[in-house]
């Protein structure tokens, strides 16, 4: 009957359990350790339990449910599968607890140090309410500890479970008494069950196993044994078939230990870092510890052990052994409540390594203070200071115990920072008659301040010290060393440095008090020679002249050096064995190689470690199968031969297929690259349109609609929509990513079925700062194909990276946009819609102008252009009279620069578009951006002049911004807000890449004066006359006042301009500290000058605008009356 029942139980087990799966940190919750104590009221106790364990699968700690009297809803406990500590259910009045998924209790912590499961006193004194069913039908393993079920008056099934099958340790205590009567089980359950239903049978996974099984099983057959790393049962023989893991769960596989940090490298013959290492977090292997834990070896811990310190390595917090005493920072003396070191506060310096502040030794501290009832300081207590390595302020010794003749209690002191000095001194020793030497043998640095050593009548050796060797910085330090024991007397008495000391001096008698050694040094003591050829241990000398012991596995040599360095791979010969270049005490045996395999080696006659046969799994004593340490082999020699021949053949075949695939992919990539280069860089030539005319080299191609494929829309504008797409040239398979702009004519009056001269002009443009037009696809709607910019528009980039932009890059972009617009001007191409949204980012250091010439493809009176015109970027004459020119593009350029300097802000943010012309007529302009100086802002203001003929040209704008870009920090002031990013760290190559646009030499300026290299396509005579008239107007205006303004009076402005031109200019090569000092002296004068000039210029502009727009307003009123 038992056998039949076991079979039924196993079927139930397979149906209920699932195999082990990886668990995320979200399913892990901390436990409690409150015992039988409660927290607040019944409701508060229940809420705390629910908030802690809701959604938990693994509890790292103890599950304690105590003193709950009402029948609250405990359904949130149904998800718990594992408890690493103990389970305590005590003094409750509910009838059932739903722990149906709990499979294993690990017992890492035990209740009363004995029990992993304790259920007691779960019934009221009066009444019939109490725990009746334990509700643990899937509990099949308790790894450590026993079971305690006592004084549960109504509990009738749980106490009668066969606990010997659940508890792994047969010696663990089982205390079950004073519970309810045993209840009847279902007929299919046999004698053991968790309740009366058929689904509540106890599943046996230990006591019914075959003798061959050493743990749990899933059947009674010898083939039904669970893996040795399984806990709580399994549904198969593999380590991935376990219901829970005995030790650790590594991504669903039960393992004895998580992948270690160090693995054995078979090629390098040494241990190295495992890139796939994981850490033990409870019973789970995790690749990263939770944020509130640190790595200690191969485990996740909440705090480091006492002998380790928490450090951060490569973004990971971990525990490392302290080199000596772990660092401890202590408060110094000098404050009102802590004026000197005395017997009342000296214990606060125990184990301190760094003093934050100063150390003062005054008479009231050494001899005691009767007024404050502080006894004298015991001289032996000063040994506490032997751990001090650094003092941040000063060391002031004005009193010292008579028993001590030196300051050797500070023998570990290395640095005196001198951040806060007493007068100009950071080390002071005065009026100490018992002092014969300083004894500061480890002192190597006095960061700031001088030395004051005076009136120590018995002090010697101090005059031998080379104090300048200790000082840091180039500043000359003046020491005050006087009224001590005369140097001649010290020499006569033999108080001189040891002969092994160098000329740098010493702190006292003996070879261990030298500042530096004449020959070699061993552990801080000067010696004649290291143990190169004799002595124990053998040594070598490093580049500092320190004697360093050879590795312990190096064999001592006679008559020659035993090693060349400290490592085991730098020995001349080995004492024991050699594994590759490394000397070792034993050959590697059972070392993990990081590939779920173990390495075993044996020593040959020469003492070299050789690898065991691959089938030796327990080590070997020699080569071949016959030397394996295990009893027998499961593989025949014929099978071994087949494996030996088959594996290399398979590897060679795989390698051949792999390399052929690489060559094929490489060929495809090369063909695709050549095709893209051919179509992106080449163009087409068109025949002359008339006799005597030259053919135009047009970069763009005439495309068919079938050559283009639109993928998704990426934006829409005034004249059409833009799609991301692909261009597949005829006869090619390559897909070139492009941007496709579709031009619509809503009126139906414009046809795009034929190629026009304007289209050819657009297709012939080729400039680094103007987006290339790759193709033109005529039809009902014209499609313009350009290069696709994955980085998006300049507006989007500036808004997303405003905290990372520096002045150099912003001014470089200004230069590039001006160059591109100058190129368009030279080729008779008016943009009409210049803004940062129409400037694309080719790279972090190069921008390109897009959407040029599109407006000229439509009729100038198109209604769409009326309703969606970008008013806030347009010049006033373009808004009122629809007059567009290169000078109206200059206005838009000024607004574009304003957008960049305002980090993508919208012009006139709170002003409706229809009100903008009125503001411009009143003289209102965009305000000065916060980062701009008056020089940059005045360039913008000149771009927004009412009279278009006195606005600067793009050629002048290129020159202005090129000059500014040579000294960017003078014209733009940007404060980086990110605390961990500095101006030098943001773009380490800005000064290399960015200056390609701004580092103009004289010849560059001359070339700019002559024009760009690409000749203009056309210049009409009227245009030439217009430019000459414009230039003459500029020259006339420049003679009477600042550019762009009509003079109100002749005298004052001339004197102001002369004063401005004669003001001292800061050198562009001046260093930042020097520049800031100069600016402090001139800032007030310059500010007044700038304000005065700005006010006069705007007054003159206001006078001009009143005259100009009187006629404009009259004309508008006449038009309105007629309409």
UniProtKB/TrEMBL annotation:
Domain Protein kinase: from-to ranges: 708-972
Predominant place of localization: membrane
Compartment(s) of residence: Membrane
Any single GO CC term annotated in Swiss-Prot or TrEMBL for this entry: receptor complex
UniProt key word Ribonucleoprotein: no
Pfam family for this entry, one: GF_recep_IV
Residues engaged in binding ATP: 741
Signal peptide segment: 1-18
E.C. designation(s): 2.7.10.1
Keyword presence, Transmembrane helix: yes
Ranges of biased composition (kind: Basic and acidic residues): 1077-1087
GO molecular function: ATP binding; neuregulin binding; neuregulin receptor activity; transmembrane receptor protein tyrosine kinase activity
InterPro entries (alphabetical): Egfr_JX_dom (IPR044912), Furin-like_Cys-rich_dom (IPR006211), Furin_repeat (IPR006212), GF_recep_IV (IPR032778), Growth_fac_rcpt_cys_sf (IPR009030), Kinase-like_dom_sf (IPR011009), Prot_kinase_dom (IPR000719), Protein_kinase_ATP_BS (IPR017441)
GO biological process: cell surface receptor protein tyrosine kinase signaling pathway; negative regulation of apoptotic process; neurogenesis; positive regulation of cell population proliferation; regulation of signal transduction
Membrane topology label: Single-pass type I membrane protein
Keywords linked to the UniProt accession: ATP-binding, Disulfide bond, Glycoprotein, Kinase, Membrane, Nucleotide-binding, Phosphoprotein, Receptor, Signal, Transferase, Transmembrane, Transmembrane helix, Tyrosine-protein kinase
EC class name: transferase
Location of the region described as Disordered in the Swiss-Prot/TrEMBL record: 1067-1087
Listed SUPFAM superfamilies: Growth factor receptor domain, L domain-like, Protein kinase-like (PK-like)
Chemical reaction(s) catalysed: L-tyrosyl-[protein] + ATP = O-phospho-L-tyrosyl-[protein] + ADP + H(+)
Record field: transmembrane: 643-664
Family: Belongs to the protein kinase superfamily. Tyr protein kinase family. EGF receptor subfamily.
The protein, known as: Receptor protein-tyrosine kinase
Organism listed in the record: Knipowitschia caucasica
Classification of source organism: Eukaryota, Metazoa, Chordata, Craniata, Vertebrata
